[in-house]
Design brief:
With about 325 residues, the chain is of the alpha/beta class. The strands form two sheets. A six-stranded mixed sheet has the order 4-3-2-1-11-12, covered by helices on one side. Strands 5-6-7-8-10-9 form a six-stranded mixed sheet.
């Protein structure tokens, strides 16, 4: 049995999100250390991060200390670690920006972390099956269309080697049937078709856990984000999980990671006071005939922005500016 340990959406940042306590960064680093413990216990072949390692794209917003701590953590892992970059790991959705402006580029340059883009591992070191690893990476794309997704999976469809099971790790807006969002979604059936309806997919980008689900012959898995940066209902109650993928069976196993309870992660008293103020504001607005407005989170602002039907790149710019100002 050869297992790969998979996790998504870390969102390291020096300054905690507005709803979180001051220990936000330390808490995430502790979670990452627990991941290393699990990888040791299960004798994993590799650890794979499915994107959004850092939260802030702006150069200079991630400290030298945070980078050093992350590199030290990676060096302590019992096996190689790979990353499939997410939209928070690159500027303007351009993969080449990682090497020039992004903190992820420092981790890659240090040698502590490896880029997963296409097939994992050097092609000149084949195993007995004819391929080093059955894992294929698809970073965040500028646009998710049938054309871009098919091109991203071109080499996957060539199906090198004679292994029965293959895994695609990606950072993409994938959702189980019936749970799609109106403003972002690439159909899982279309993604499965681009894989010739064969294999498994582990995906990041979606923070709410989807578990394991199947579409058009392909098994998809998303246990949710490692980070809990936003105060949504699912972040109050969900377990923090990673997934192990067995290359011999093609099956996912969801694994719990020890973590703090929500009342130690979020500033719940502060948020309650803010929401009480929101209710008072809404009552006042009702009396003067104005629309109610939400003031409690970036997510709430973005919900309103999406109703304006702006171009996707404009929405992305607005979200980036809001996070930088937070």
């Amino acid at each position: 049995m050869t297992e790969y340990l998979l996790m998504g959406d870390i969102h390291l940042r020096d300054r905690p999100p507005s709803a979180c306590t001051d220990s936000y960064l330390d808490d995430i680093l502790d979670l990452l250390r627990h991941v290393g413990t699990v990888a040791t216990q299960r004798q994993c072949e590799a650890i794979i991060w499915a994107g959004d390692v850092f939260d802030c794209k702006t150069p200079g917003r991630t400290s030298h200390r945070t980078l050093i701590d992350t590199i030290d953590l990676l060096h302590a892992y019992p096996c190689p670690t790979y990353v499939v970059p997410g939209n928070h790991d690159m500027q303007h959705d351009r993969l080449d920006s990682i090497a020039t402006t992004q903190p992820l580029g420092v981790l890659l340059a240090s040698g502590a972390l490896n880029l997963l883009h296409g097939w994992m591992g050097p092609t000149d070191k084949l195993d007995t099956h004819g391929w080093l690893d059955p894992v294929y990476g698809v970073p965040w794309l500028q646009d998710f269309t049938d054309d871009t997704v098919h091109r991203a999976l071109d080499l996957y469809r060539e199906d090198p080697g004679d292994l029965d099971h293959h895994l695609v790790v990606t950072h993409a807006p994938l959702y189980p049937a019936g749970r799609e969002l109106p403003y972002e979604n690439y159909p899982t059936t279309a993604w499965a078709n681009a894989m010739n309806n064969h294999g498994s997919v582990f995906y990041g980008h979606v923070h709410e856990p989807h578990g394991v689900h199947t579409a058009a012959g392909v098994v998809f898995c998303n246990p949710g984000a490692i980070s809990r940066g936003s105060l949504h209902e699912h972040n109050l109650h969900r377990p923090i999980q990673v997934a192990a993928w067995d290359s011999a069976t093609g099956q996912f196993t969801l694994l719990d990671i020890p973590h703090k309870p929500a009342d130690q992660v979020f500033r719940l008293n502060h948020v309650t006071q803010t929401r009480n103020a929101q209710a008072t504001l809404n009552q006042f607005l009702d009396t003067i005939g104005q629309a109610s407005i939400e003031i409690t989170s970036i997510e709430a602002v973005m919900d309103h922005v999406r109703t304006l039907k702006l171009a996707p790149r404009v929405e992305t710019t607005i979200l980036t500016l809001l996070k930088e100002a937070e």
